[in-house]
Amino acid sequence: MNYLQKLIRQAKLDLFVIVLINNVILIAGWIIFRQLLNWNVVYTAIILGVVAILEAAFISLSLTSYLMQPLTAMWQAVLHLSPSAASTQAPKAQDLSFGKDLVSDLLSHIYQFINVAEKVDTENKQKAKDLSNNFVAQNLPIPFFVLDSSETIKYANKAAAKYLGMNAIDLLDKSIYVVLDMAFPSEDTFDSWLKNAKSSSATAGNTWERVKLEARDNHPMYLFDLAAYYNRDNTDHNETMLLLFDHTKAYSQDEQAVSFVALGVHELRSPLTLLRGYIEVFEEELEGKLDPELEGFMEKMHAQVEQLMSFVNNILNVARIDDDQMELKLEEIAWSEILDPTIDALRIRAKVRGITLETRIDEKLPTVAVDSLSIQEVINNLVDNAIKYSGKSTVIKVDAHLTKDNMVETTVQDYGVGIATALIPNLFTKFYRDHHNRSQIGGTGLGLYLSKSIVKANGGNLWVRSKEDQGSVFGFTVQPYSSLNIKSSKDRQELIKGAHGWIKNHSLYRQ
Amino acid sequence: MQPDQNQSRQQRSILCIEDEHFISELYERSLKKAGYNVTVISDGEEALRAAQANSYDIILLDLMIPNLTGIEILRILRDPTRLPPISSKIIIITNLEQRQDVRADIEKQADGYLVKAELTPHELVDFVNTIK
To answer: Chain A residue with minimal CA distance to B102?
Structure first.
């Protein structure tokens, strides 16, 4: 049975009866006054008019409160459930004389809604309570924050409060950016990541190293690694989690640049700076004044210092690569602008061993995209190797040309001792040196390992072809600038690459 | 030896903040030969005072010096709230090996960053000549 139809039917019936009774009273009055009492028309009309007005007033008053009973009850029910007017009494559906069934039915629906809403609310409160009662979250010895969709802190554990020198309760309902004013080493920041995650993913995770928190009244300066997790559909609306791994001590030391290699390099560089300086002064001041023997010694000294310089750079670069600290800045440059001066600087080393460097660079080469500093080390290492392993031969040929796949290739060919085929696969391993030659030829076994890493990081490849007693050809490729997917001048500035892959601007890659 | 050809035009002044005497001696020799007016200071605090009191055209700044580090001096000289601003060009000269991000940070504030071992005195002069 539809309660609303029943109510409407009852209302129609009630109204019909009332109007009928009203009319019957008026007709009966007319008959009584005119026929039985013989009143004249005017008096009768006046009396009945007054009766009609009184009747209308009585009916409208009583009928309104009667018909409005369901609405009044519903109004009471809504107010009763509203948190802002909860003092209103709950309606009693059983006492209603009109619309009892409909109101009872509607009230039961309303109470059901409220129950569902209250249940969700209680569950959420329970969940938040669970987190603060959760043994793991609360006692995790790592600062831990939970944020809602507006990046407001909804939970912070004991470690977080202690780290920031605040009470956990004071952290709640504050913006994370107010509490943690973090500085990141690159543009890859927490807020940019979160913004991106919110617009493009249901869940996401990320980590950052060396995040800095400036000192405040209640805590000192901190350096830490940050881990974050985001989940858009989390039912309790706590979308984001943050974990802070403190490394203040270790990172502060790093900032002072006192790693072992850095220290060693610094100690080696100082005397090298001086030696190179003095040699230059002597070469300038004594030019033409020395006998050929002393002139030869001077050149050899110069060559040895340059050799030592290469060695220091190699050590440093290997440490950088192993530490994932090597950063390459790829720039557009004519290949000859790099190759020519590098080879020229190597001529003195070749000369003191009686070797001539012959260079041939294809004039039609396109400009290349390379990191000049590191690629010079590659040329240095390959030519240096060729000099060391030249034996009695007196020529080393350097040739730059374009390959079939449009890469700029440079080959360094010597006609010396060569390498046995079986040993070739080991050449690019760190610290590997040809055991046949170890006693006669100096070196660290770092050069080829390093060169291969650098060439790869520059986007090219390094290869070798060799025959024992006939010499070796080492070749490497670099990419023409035009093959880079460069979209704007902004990209140009951000052409920065790590030895183990792109580290900035992931839109840049070879087409 | 010929008298220096650059003597006639106005000498540019260089403050060389370097505590390794052998190195500053070499740099001073080459820069003077190239016609620069060179002052060498090996103490950090003294160097900062000198840099603030005189308007050197170029400051060569070593990072490891006593009393105030080169980074501190750089920060103070490049502090945007300081008035009037120092017009000197600042070139970092160091043999320290820095983390890439630290180095990038220093480079941003300076007008040049050179590794001493990677260039001879002559090459240093060539570089300084390019600084306008």
So the answer is: A255
Is A257 in contact with B120 (Cβ distance < 8 A)? no
Q: pTM score > 0.95 for this model?
A: no
Say which of A185, A186, A280 has its CB closest to residue B121.
A280
**Strands, E, within A232-385: which ranges?**
238-246, 327-329, 331-333, 356-361, 368-370
Cβ of A289: how many Cβ atoms within 10 Å?
8
Q: How many CB pairs under 8 A join A and B?
A: 61
The pLDDT score that the predictor gives to residue A503 is 36
pLDDT in tens, A170-201: 888 899 998 888 888 777 889 889 998 888 88
CA distance A125 to A231: 19
Q: Which of A269, A278, A325 lies at the smallest CB-CB distance from B95?
A: A269
Q: Which of B102, B118, B120 sits opposite A255 (nearest CB)?
A: B102
Q: Strand B58-62's sheet: what is its strand order?
A: B37-41, B13-17, B58-62, B89-94, B112-115
Measured between CA atoms, the residue of chain A closest to residue B19 is A270
CB contact under 8 A, A269 and B117: yes
CB B126 within 8 A of CB B33: no
Interatomic CA distance for residues A453 and A464, integer angstroms:
15
Based on C-alpha coordinates, what's the Rg of chain B? 14
